[in-house]
Sequence to fold (119 residues):
Amino acid sequence: MASRDGATAAILVGVWGTFALDVFSTLNSSPQTTELFADDREDSLMHWVVIGSAVAVGGGIYGTVLSSSPWPLLGAVAVTGGMYLAYVHAVRRGKGQQAPAQSPTPVASSGGWGYGDGY
Fold:
């Protein structure tokens, strides 16, 4: 992809930025979940954020090598940086907060979906 036009750059940034988002959605709980369980599970939650960051940036490097263009790496790094900051922010917001109580689990019955234990 030797083309230097703006459309090619936009496509490469968009595709590899989306790749980075896909990596985070595959390997991590949401930032909201990280916030809810920051006190109990911060080390484990952030471990997977670091793994996801490495995979996303690694993919961007791969895309840059394949395309001979810097745009895949720049797209992946931009999204990875934003996601990393979102998770750090979630941990800060969640520290010192009580984790949510267990919610009732929906169950199937002959009357459709409902909640067990009288809910």
Observations:
- Residues 65 and 72 are 9 Å apart (CA to CA).
- Helices lie at 6-27, 31-36, 38-67, 71-94.
